[in-house]
Amino acid sequence: MRIRVDWRTSVSVLGTILKILALPLASMAALALFYSEPLVPFLVPFAGSLLAGVGLERIERDEPGPREAFLLVASAWLAVALVGAIPFVLAGQGTLADPVNALFESMSGITTTGATVVGRFEIHGRAILMWRQVLQWLGGLGILVLAVGLLSELSVSGAQLMETETRTQDVTKLTPRMAGTARLLGGLYLGLTALLAALLYGLHLLGPRIGVPDLAPEMTLYDAVAHALTTIATAGFSPHAKSVGAFSPAVQWVVVVGMFVGATNFVLLYHLSRGDTTRIRDSEEFRVYLGVVVGGALVVGAMLVLDGEYPLGEELVRATLFQVTSIVTTTGYATVDFDLWSAGPRHVLFLGMFVGGMAGSTTCSIKTLRWLVVGKTFRRDLFTAVHPRAIKPVRLSGAAIDEDTIRDIYAYTLVSVVIFGLLTVFVVVDASRAGVEVTEFGAMGAAASTFLNIGPAFGFAGPYGSYEPFPDSTKLVMVVMMWVGRIEIFPVLALLTRSFWES
Amino acid sequence: MRIRVDWRTSVSVLGTILKILALPLASMAALALFYSEPLVPFLVPFAGSLLAGVGLERIERDEPGPREAFLLVASAWLAVALVGAIPFVLAGQGTLADPVNALFESMSGITTTGATVVGRFEIHGRAILMWRQVLQWLGGLGILVLAVGLLSELSVSGAQLMETETRTQDVTKLTPRMAGTARLLGGLYLGLTALLAALLYGLHLLGPRIGVPDLAPEMTLYDAVAHALTTIATAGFSPHAKSVGAFSPAVQWVVVVGMFVGATNFVLLYHLSRGDTTRIRDSEEFRVYLGVVVGGALVVGAMLVLDGEYPLGEELVRATLFQVTSIVTTTGYATVDFDLWSAGPRHVLFLGMFVGGMAGSTTCSIKTLRWLVVGKTFRRDLFTAVHPRAIKPVRLSGAAIDEDTIRDIYAYTLVSVVIFGLLTVFVVVDASRAGVEVTEFGAMGAAASTFLNIGPAFGFAGPYGSYEPFPDSTKLVMVVMMWVGRIEIFPVLALLTRSFWES
Ligand SMILES: [K+]
Ligand SMILES: [K+]
Questions:
Q1: Residue A1: what pLDDT?
Q2: In a 3-state reduction of DSSP, which class is residue B363?
Q3: Judging by beta carbons within 10 Å of its beta carbon (0-12, 13-18, 19+), is residue A435 exposed, middle or buried?
Q4: Which has more confidence, B258 or B502?
Q5: For chain B, what is the mean pLDDT?
Q6: Maximum average pLDDT range among A186-190, A471-475, B7-11, B269-273
């Protein structure tokens, strides 16, 4: 076998990524110093990633092709997850001291999943808890850069989706070069994070001054930054066991808006930030995304009222809209333990896991754009089935989508659903083998929530629970599935084919 | 709104179908006479379908187009299900006397599903029990005629699948005209049914003569015919509560072979019957189908041995191969209550429900051909993702499949899986609303088993159970889903679009 992939280039770029990773690790060391917490957990991976990064970067690199990009993407998420786990192991506290748990938490972080194995939050240091948040923010940034700057040059499902967007929404016209676009959207991501942190902390400061002391009393600067990081990244980690439920109604409303914005196409947000509202009004995907959130909330709300869970009022609207937005945007925060709801609303949330927010954002799951294309194509095919001579392209926001792109979207959606099904069966059977009691619905939720990078599930892995009780074998498979799901399946599966390496 | 569908033609052909239906109803009346059971349950629908049939047939008919064919297919299955339910209601015994149950049983019959609401089999007359079997055989015949003679002229998923087969296996070359092909395969279907009945009854007669009295002591002529009818139709009704478990090992082995043959492409069987073995040896789909059955049996068998369910031996092999073949071929017979097995083998059976036998047979579910195309296309797309300039068609048994067909197969598979998911959620939520206790896995099984036309599920709807405890609302939705699933979704969904009726 002769390897024809230019792996040296991939490894060299990976070196740059590891070098960059040293910066947030150094910041966490500084934070630990500030809080008088141990520095070693951060200094060791800092030194390691800096040295490895500088070393690997020296390898001569060429212009990367599709294969080199696949290899880079797959190895980057894996490498950062491994380095990211080191602080948890070295801190050595609670469930996170266990290497499997540490890797799970780290992969859940960098993939913006938000499934946690933390048992008791209060025993961990503030820097360690902030590291979870930072990992997620970095993961969101990575996805954004990937979506615009890299994947769009490759001819795969996720890519052609971006191509579709490119065609219909002129991503490429934002700036002449992809790298420029990526930098621009990265800046927007940073700006939105800062804005949200300022808003949240602002509420905290404002409360006592306007005579409303319980406006946001718990939202300290630390928590404002921590939650801003994982809201815009639609990622969902919180340093609190009760998630956003630990904060006031005002904070919860701000976070609802933040999650909704975080799962909106960043190209639309960019135009919006420049005062151009036509793009967002013309976007069919945005209307579907908004419709799913509002429609889902109406259905869940009606069910909760029928169940007598809440009286009509602000609390009902907030609880419903928060949980539905959190799941549909794939954030995974919670303000109530929705695992205690009845079968109806729990199952609507479960279905919501498969939707996801808009393409071109940090959202995970299948994404509304894909479902929109699937639905439109299916409608078209019903039409052409009875009008065989008609030629009718599928149009998105006015522009025709080519049939190859449609096929790739079908493939991606189908493969996602099939992998979810197989993972569910694995979780049930593996838990039963290991003697861990998992309900079928708990397994379905955990499979969807990890593979689709949402976070909380049902049963012991519910929004106020933890994935810790799953057997190690299940947790390790979930680590792999979070990784595979976040980078949109193809890069990992391609690595498993012989033709990837050889021909 | 101006209706542009030539519904008169559809209704006229439906008249012919109802006229033909009078013949089996008359036969059941004769059987009732033979067993001194009430004749009225059969004479009323006999007279009704004969009169309605002759009357409707008089409506002038034109050459049917795609729309008229869709309308015909959808209304034919529905009309026969309604007429087929009349004997159960008029016989007025047990659970079947209830109209909802009667319709469920009849639809389960004509769609070759085999999900039953019968509580106690022994209280029903022999003619009524045989009517269930006959409905299934007619349903299987309908599907065979449809697959070859009708659907292949239409440009829908199921159709293009047959087209694919046409191209790769020369269905059209069997005889110059489609009608001729349909007649030929219908004859083969009848011949195989007769052969199987003769084999089963032959075992019964042979036993005492060769000094092996327990070769097949219970396999009377009645049971031989009853099971031959529902084996070749991969349908699964049995007049016995214990299904094929009521019979000897020898009978079970014959039935395994019968089910396997019933889910094999009838074009291949036709060539085989003429001594041509090359077709079957060259068929990639056959190899996959065989592989799924053997592979599934090996996995289930290994799990059962680990569970200590059976010692190594003939009983293990038979129990495993029977249950796996029954599920994969979508027949739905059982020889053991597999609902009592542990999570592992039960979940493998559950996954097996989604496979199905070969296209061009009476099998239901998604079918191996579609999965084969999905798998090959996915592999091809992984290849072209890393080799963007390569042009590589997907080949099946050597011939290239066109991309439109591939897209339709993806669409069909995805829509099936999505409908299954939504149906599962409906079953859980509706049961919880009605206060009927259904486990999540029970709901998953029942949803898959009805929509994919398999028959038994898990929990109270297990192989030795009944669907009777489900609320009426759930049962009526399942009636619709069996109907939608059996005629491959598109004809019913197309009827729901406005463009079907108007433009
Ligand atoms: K998440
Ligand atoms: K069946």
A1: 55
A2: coil
A3: exposed
A4: B258
A5: 90
A6: A471-475
Q: Which of residues 210-269 of A touch B (CB under 8 A)?
A: none
Q: What is the pLDDT of residue B11?
A: 92
Mean pLDDT for B300-318 is 95
Pick the range with the lowest mean pLDDT from A273-287, A342-356, A384-398, B160-174.
B160-174
Q: Tell me if A426 is assigned to some domain.
A: yes
For the beta carbon of residue B178, count every other beta carbon within 10 angstroms: 17
Instruction: At A97, list the tokens.
Output: 């001291």
Helices in A58-154 by DSSP H: which ranges? Answer: 66-91, 99-110, 126-145
Q: Which residue of B has its CA nearest to A376?
A: B411
Task: Locate A375 and state its tokens.
Answer: 């639905």
| Segment 447-476 of chain B within 8 Å of chain A by CB | none
pLDDT in tens, B228-248: 999 999 999 999 999 999 999
Q: Does A67 touch chain B (CB under 8 A)?
A: yes
Q: Is residue A215 part of a domain?
A: no
- How far apart, in whole angstroms, are the C-alpha atoms of residue B411 and residue A373? 11
Q: What is the whole-number distance in angstroms between the Cα of residue B112 and the centre of ligand 2?
A: 5
**pLDDT given for residue B386 in this prediction:** 77
More confident residue, A82 or B403: A82
pLDDT at B14: 93
Highest mean pLDDT among A28-32, A211-215, A284-288, B364-368: A28-32
The DSSP line for A8-38 is HHHHHHHHHHHHHHHHHHHHHHHHHHHTT--
- The single-letter code of the amino acid at B125 is G
Average pLDDT over residues B53-63: 90
Per-residue confidence (pLDDT) for residue A279, from 0 to 100: 84
Is there a domain that residue A127 lies in?
no
Cα B173 to Cα B379: distance, rounded to the nearest angstrom? 31
Q: Domain span at residue A482? A: 368-501
Closest CA to B452 of B500, B489, B491: B489
Distance in angstroms (rounded) separating the CA atoms of residues B206 and B345: 36
Cα–Cα distance measured from residue A26 to residue A44, given in angstroms and rounded to the nearest whole number: 10
Residues of A whose CB is below 8 A from B415: 378
- Which tokens hold the place of B9? 């033609």
Could you tell me which residues are beta bridge partners of residue A395? A400
Which of B186, B187, B223, B188 lies closest to B202, judged by CA?
A: B223
Residue of B nearest to A445 (CA): B440
Any CB–CB contact under 8 A between A307 and chain B?
no
- The per-residue DSSP string of B417-459 comes to HHHHHHHHHHHHHHHHHHT----HHHHHHHHHHHHTT----SG
| Two tokens, residue B359 | 């296209």
Cα A343 to middle of ligand 2, angstroms: 29
Tokens coding A56: 């690997």
User: Which tokens belong to B102?
Assistant: 């009667």
For range A285-309, the mean pLDDT: 96
Domain count, chain A: 1
Q: How far apart are CA B249 and CA A303, in angstroms?
A: 51
Joined tokens for residue B494 = 């197309």
Tens digit of each residue's pLDDT (9 = 90 or more) over A5-17: 888 889 999 999 9
Residue A390, sorted as left (phi over 0), alpha (psi -120 to 50) or beta, turns out to be beta
Taking contacts as CB-CB distances below 8 angstroms, the residues of chain A near B439 are: 440
Is residue A424 included in any domain, yes or no? Answer: yes
Identity at B123, one-letter amino acid code: I
Other C-beta atoms closer than 10 Å to the C-beta of B121 total 15
Q: What is the dihedral of CA B95, B98, B101, B102, to 10 degrees?
A: 100
Q: Centre a 10 Å sphere on the Cβ of residue B151 and count the other Cβ atoms it contains.
A: 26
User: A250 pLDDT band (50/70/90 cuts)?
Assistant: very high
| A384 interfaces chain B, CB cutoff of 8 Å | yes
